[in-house]
Write a structure and sequence with these properties.
The protein is α+β, with helices and mostly antiparallel strands. It has helices spanning 85-103, 151-157, 161-180, 184-187; strands at 112-116, 134-137, 146-150. Helix 1 crosses helix 3 (161-180).
Length: 194
């Protein structure tokens, strides 16, 4: 007769000798009949110690207990592939600024260049429709002139890495042209308007 509510037996759903309800296998229990140390005739002085050979030494454990592998970065911080998309975008903007700055260094002295993720929700008066890819702010009230490139809109418009480099260069050239009141072709003869 089975007792209901007992901690053993069928009330828990476990069948003696069968699978356990949570799916874990039973741990093997040591068999004292197979253990030589339980034999009264066992003499520990007659056992020769086994020394591990170079091939027998196990490598250090490289996985965690659930088999997902080691945690942490896959690449060291100094590797080029470790850089984030934002850092690579900053590098593209710096290259474009250096290219423009070689020709217009005097006029751009003191100008700050920045990268922001998205433009603010209030468009500038000259921006008609669409999302701004960049903005220029003239020097006023003690603040230096500033050119800002917006990363997310540029990334969403670019088709690939090469197209993104061209688009960043075009945005920087256009904003510098607005700032200096010139045409983009004057700023960069290789300008390709989109």
């Amino acid at each position: 007769m089975a007792l209901f509510g007992s901690s053993r037996g069928s009330s828990r759903g476990a069948v003696p000798g069968g699978p356990r309800p949570h799916g874990r296998p039973r741990r093997p229990r040591p068999n004292p009949a197979l253990d030589p140390t339980t034999d009264p005739a066992f003499d520990p002085t007659t056992v020769t110690p086994v020394t591990p050979q170079a091939d027998d030494v196990a490598a250090p454990r490289r996985r965690d207990r659930r088999g997902r592998g080691i945690r942490g970065p896959l690449l060291p911080p100094g590797m080029p592939a470790h850089r984030t998309r934002a850092e690579r975008f900053d590098d593209l903007v710096l290259e474009a600024v250096e290219a423009v700055g070689r020709r217009w260094a005097e006029q751009l002295s003191g100008t700050e260049f920045a990268v922001e993720d998205v433009p603010p929700s209030d468009p500038a008066p000259w921006e008609s429709g669409g999302v701004a890819l960049g903005r220029c702010f003239p020097a006023e009230s003690g603040q230096p002139a500033r050119v800002v490139v917006y990363r997310r809109p540029v990334e969403s418009r670019a088709l690939d890495a090469e197209d993104m480099a061209d688009l960043v260069r075009d945005v920087v050239v256009e904003q510098v042209a607005h700032l200096l009141a010139r045409t983009p072709e004057e700023i960069d003869p290789h300008y390709e308007g989109r």
